[in-house]
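Sample intake sheet
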Amino acid sequence: MTAGLIATTPGTALAWGTPGASNGQKSETSGQSGGGTIASKITFSGSVEGGRRPGNGNVTPVGDWSPPACWYEPRSASEFAEYVEGMYAETVNTPGQHSYAKASVGMFRDQYKDGEYKNYNLGKKDEGNWWVAVVDEDRWMEPEAQACGKQPFWVETGDVPPVAQVVTSEILAELAYNRVRLPATEVTLAPARATKVNLPTWAWLDRASFKPVSVTASLDAGGVAIQATTTARPVSLRLSPGTSDAELYPAAGECAIGTDGSIGEPYAKGRAEQTPPCGVKYLRSSGGGTFALQATVTWEITWTGTGNPDPTRLPDGTFGATRDVTVQEIQSVNRSVTS
């Protein structure tokens, strides 16, 4: 993508920078109705996406809830001036840049330098801050990302920004939610290789792997310093056997986490005929194939942060995996005795 612009007129939406850029946080893109945005200053730490391991993944909210795709952050007058001047210089000096792009970025620059505002309000830098729209780099193509279409605007110190999507500690918590990286759902089964028809199969999860995980989101910009920590705690394991010809333990298929943090109970020799606290019994063989056993862990998610010291619930999340299970008929051996 050519280094381009911020939108300069209502109804115009041009982008600057590449969504998904390598800074690992946000990239610059525009709103649909002229709201130029700047790369976010929010930082994330903890169990974030950067620490990728095979099988790990992101939490999926239960229901249709999702974190915000865009919001507004503050910038000092000097930061905003540096941004606009840099964007202008890069656009007009890029070989082959379209004349429309140069004209648009020039109009945008003029608005804040010599038009409605004077020299980016640098003369009033101690009296307020600019507020700019920011889009989540992973969701910039979604319609929700176009909700923050207001052009950068000035807010006097102590005044409330006149928009609904102003960044708060709660918004930070919701953004952190989307970056919680959960451990792989590797269920241990007994029998491990192949189970038998009408034989209970025990299932459990390693308690050492299923501990609470947290992500902290922080913002320190334009006189605003806030943070929030979002924590996910495993609470249950749901099994789906991959066929209706099966019985689950417990019958609802939801295995609760124990007081020691374990889910289910490891199989011990001599307990093959016992009912497992967590598991499945297949009532027919898988023939020449397998059944897809799905194991999904439900995580309870809460947050604390600036102005919110007590854990507050966010929607529960899930993360799971599927494994192939071979189910065999029990073979009987008939012996005949001849005299």
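Comment: The mean pLDDT is 84. Residues 92 and 98 are 9 Å apart (CA to CA).
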